[in-house]
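Backbones bend. We report:
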Amino acid sequence: MKCIAVYTKNFELFSDLYETIMNTPLSENEEKEIEGIVVSESGEVPENYLEKMKVKPEVVVMKVKEGDITILQHGDVFEIFVPEENLSTSAVVS
């Protein structure tokens, strides 16, 4: 799975920018600024990282209805976990 990190703690802003973020091409370890928010493609993430984070009480877990996309929010960051085959697919956060 690929991880896209979005550095904001503002859920409303994250939600407003989600589709733009998902449609922005990023190379591995590349950072871009989108409407004042830093977005970074963090590369490949092992499956066990996602499972470890999901059980922490300070982590909010969200699933996207379409696709196998998981979003974690903790601290000042949202992490979007996208299977390789869904990288160019946009979806709405539920």
